[in-house]
Amino acid sequence: MYQTLRYEVEDQIAVLTINRPEALNALNGQVIGELEEAVSAVEADRSLKALIITGEGRSFVAGADIGAQAPLDVDGGRRWGQRGSALFRRIEKLEIPTIAAVNGFALGGGCELALACDIILASEKAKFGQPEVGLGITPGFSGTQRLPRRVGVGKAKELIYTGKMIKADEALRIGLANEVYPPEELMEQAKSLAKTIAGNAPIAVRYAKAAIDRGLQTDIDSGIAVENELFAMCFATADQKEGMQAFLDKRPATFQNR
């Protein structure tokens, strides 16, 4: 089905692997198109409880394909940026939690793809950066918007203005990465985290994600109102009844996603 991706589902957890290792998984039109298809598959599968995105080989995504961008004019650059940004926004807005398992280079569009995910886990070999200014462009897939929200304005400006690359330990220190693991443990840890998330009430997890993401885009009073409404909606679910009864019965809960 895909030529530049692998898409697998196991135990209601999807794993999306960008598989263009000969080009360090750089994003060209084909990869973007197949990612669009894969995201549509995730959106359509109501049984999924989490998504992991990773890369094949020694790179997560080394950026957008420079050869594909070099000949673009203003209109072409605008369309390319809009397409990538729209795709990453769809990933960000997925109802289920998303985990970026960054196994190597996450530069430019690769860093921006990781930023579109809820949680970033990194290999000790991972390297992050937004090197676009060294190529005469700005970040184009929403890096100027998500990086400041993740690590703070000052650090984001430093990274974007200098174009410098940072290692996994620095990414962890500034809050870009949630955790750092030896390379051989990365996917095991990502799947373990996804399974932990999947063991909770799926509707409650989706509502919690919605409350956080929507609340961060508004003032705190409006955000609290969003939380209050989503909290109330939990009480219309069978999973809330099961979760609380299981607690009272001192037994594990069995959630049905309804």
UniProtKB/TrEMBL annotation:
Pathway(s) this gene product operates in, as recorded in its UniProt entry: Lipid metabolism; butanoate metabolism
CDD domains: crotonase-like (cd06558)
EC identifiers of the protein: 4.2.1.150
Catalytic reaction(s) noted: a short-chain (3S)-3-hydroxyacyl-CoA = a short-chain (2E)-enoyl-CoA + H2O
Example GO biological process: fatty acid beta-oxidation
Enzyme class: lyase
Keywords from the UniProt entry: Lyase
GO molecular function, one term: 3-hydroxyacyl-CoA dehydratase activity
Domain of life of the source: Bacteria
Entry's family note: Belongs to the enoyl-CoA hydratase/isomerase family.
Subunit text: Homotetramer.
Name of protein: short-chain-enoyl-CoA hydratase
Lineage: Bacteria, Bacillati, Bacillota, Clostridia, Eubacteriales
